[in-house]
Structures are given as C-alpha cells and as structure tokens.
From TrEMBL:
Name of this protein: Diguanylate cyclase (GGDEF) domain-containing protein
NCBIfam families per record: GGDEF
Taxonomic path: Bacteria, Pseudomonadati, Pseudomonadota, Alphaproteobacteria, Rhodobacterales
Species this chain originates from: Tropicimonas isoalkanivorans
Alphabetized InterPro entries for the sequence: DGC-Regulatory_Protein (IPR052163), GGDEF_dom (IPR000160), HNOB_dom_associated_sf (IPR042463), Nucleotide_cyclase (IPR029787), Rev_trsase/Diguanyl_cyclase (IPR043128)
Bias (Low complexity) ranges: 1-10
Length: 350
C-alpha cells in the first residue's frame, strides 16, 4: 500500500496519467505486478490497457495492449457476455477463458470493477494447466505471485523431476554395471571368448526354444609341448591366436567358448547340416596347422574335433550332447589327431 498521491495540477483527482487512463487503484503498478503478475486492466471501452509481466512471456505486448479483451480472449464461462465490463456482475466475477488463437493456454479468472466508468481489473491464473504452461512457455517461480500455491507445486515438481533424473541416472549406472558384471561372468579373460558358463547358458536357451544348432568340440594337439618348450606365455599367445581363428570361421550369431585349458566349443545357431559343419571343422583344422610365431620361435599345434548336432539326438539333454561330442573328439585323437569325427546314435565314424 502507498499513501494517496497529492493532486498535481491538470490531473483529475491527483491520479498519475497511467492510473487516470486505467482507473484509480489503491496501490502502485509495481506492487500490482508482484501481487498479481497475471492481471489484466480493461478500460470501459473493452480495450486492454495494462497487463501483468507474466502475460508478456505468453504473448508479445503488441498483441495485448490496445486490443479488445474479447478479441484476444474467448470467454468459456459465463456464456452470453457481450461486453467484458459485465464480467464482475456475473457469477461473482469468476470466469474461464482461453486465447482465441496463437499461443496455447486456458485460464481461470476473477474480475472486479475499478469504479464508475473506469473499467475492470481481472486477475487470472493457469489453474490445473499450470504444469503444461510452465513447460510450454518456460515459466519460473518469478512469473507467479509469491503467495500462489502454484509456486509450491512448481517446487515440488522440480524436486520430483530432479529426484527422477537422479534415479534414472542411477538406474542406468546399475544396468550398465549389471551388464558389465554379466559380461565378465560369461567371458574368458585370456581369450575374450565366452566361458563354460556362457556356453551352458546358450545351449539351454537354444534347446528350450527348439532352435537347431551344430556343436563342435575342438581340442588342441601338442599344446603341452608348447608350454613345456617355450613357457606359459607362449601358450597364452597360442590360445589367443586360436581364439582369433575360431571367431573368424564363425558368424556373429554363433557362440565360441573356451571350455577350459586348450578345449573350445563352438555352437552354430540354426546350422545342423553335418556336411557344412564338417567343412567348417576342416577349415579350422587347416588354419590351426599353420605355425604361430612367438618371440622369434614358431609354435606348432594342430586340432582334433568332435562334431554333433541337436538333430542327431533330438531328445538328448545338454549333458548328453556334450558327452556325445566329447566322445567324438577323443575318437579323433585316437585316430591320429588333426581330424574331425561325427557323432552317430550307436557308433562313431569319421
């Protein structure tokens, strides 16, 4: 509140020019902007003479000041209003409105007369659409009256958004950590291939989904001599080289696992054709017969392979399939190494 102004000469009632045009107010416009940042002052002729600062975030000044209130705003309630100055006389001055075009937004308002022939003062708010308005027009707490409950709601929404954002970041970190942990649990650290645990997981998935697959069990020949002659570092180099060969001979959807030591298992998804699998096995054997260099020395190995498919024994368990292919592998060993043996139901044959 401020003390009534003195009456300067030439100004009726001692009012400031802007006040004289809009009507007498018991407080200055700076205070009015703070108390009601979404106020609208409408003169007796129905033209908008002044608006609170928040309106200028929604519409340019030229689209509001000097325009007829009912051209800018569409009255939704009460109905039948022909002259905006009738608003304070209907429903206790309460009304509902929205922009006719352009910027979005619906508003609740309360209108009061400023005095005889002085027009009206309307104070508006966003109502339940406040959150949409804040997002649409990038509003902040300063665009609302400090006593407006919307400010508290904005603080709560901001706090909730911040908490949700942090929660989302935490969940993402946890998911990443989980994926990394699972990947580590399923990976052989020396070769980067899958390990036995991952191998069993893939086999159970394929068996459960009844997806056909081929199974190759590869065991290195003469690997012990490499370790004994050149040391375990040379052996590690050989295992890594073998891993690269096995990956190069398989597809992205296949699984190459180090089952332990110098043993590897290849699971070839949707490939149960024995002749194709036999060809892959022989390419692997041929590649692994090439000497592997290590510190100026040449490490020589070969590979024995056992081969089976999910279709040779459709009803077999995972353990039975692994036992079958293991038996085929050792048949290759007994037959002279560097070869592939295919599993059959009652007997083994090359």
């Amino acid at each position: 509140m401020r003390a009534p102004p003195t009456r300067p000469a030439g100004t009726p009632g001692g009012r400031e020019p802007e006040e004289a045009e809009a009507g007498t107010l018991p407080l200055g416009f700076e205070a009015l902007d703070r108390f009601m940042p979404m106020h609208v002052i409408v003169a007796a002729d129905g033209l908008i003479r002044r608006v609170g600062p928040t309106w200028l975030r929604l519409r340019p000044r030229g689209e509001l000041i000097g325009r007829a209130f009912l051209e800018v705003f569409e009255l939704r309630r009460p109905t039948g209003i022909q002259n905006v100055t009738e608003l304070p006389n209907r429903d206790g001055g309460r009304f509902s409105t929205a922009f006719r075009k352009g910027a979005r937004g619906s508003f609740k308002g309360l209108a009061v007369h400023l005095g005889p022939e002085a027009g009206l003062l309307a104070n508006l708010s966003f109502g339940i659409s406040v959150l949409e308005a804040v997002e649409t027009y990038d509003l902040s707490a300063k665009d609302f009256a400090e006593t407006d409950l919307a400010v508290e709601m904005l603080y709560l929404v901001e706090a909730k958004s911040a908490a949700m954002a942090e929660s989302k970041k935490l969940n993402q970190r946890l998911r990443s950590a989980k994926v990394a942990a699972e990947e580590q649990a399923f990976t052989d650290t020396l070769t980067g291939l899958k390990n036995r645990r991952a191998m069993n997981h893939v086999l159970m998935q394929l068996r459960s989904a009844r997806i056909p697959f081929g199974l190759l069990h590869v065991d290195l020949d003469y690997f012990k001599q490499v370790n004994d002659t050149y040391g375990h570092a040379a052996g590690d180099e050989v295992l890594q080289s073998v891993a690269r060969v096995l990956v190069s001979e398989t597809r992205r959807e296949d699984t190459v696992a180090r089952a332990g030591g110098d043993e590897f298992v290849l699971i070839l998804r949707d490939l149960a054709d024995v002749s194709q699998l036999h060809e892959i096995a022989h390419r692997i054997i041929s590649s692994l017969e090439r000497p592997i260099p290590y510190n100026g020395k040449m490490c020589r190995i070969s590979a024995s392979v056992g081969l089976t498919t999910s279709e040779i024994r459709p009803g077999a368990s995972i353990d039975q399939l692994l036992e079958d292919v293991d038996g085929a592998l050792y048949a290759s060993k007994r037959a002279g190494r560097g070869r592939c043996t295919v599993v059959e139901l009652d007997r083994l044959r090359e």
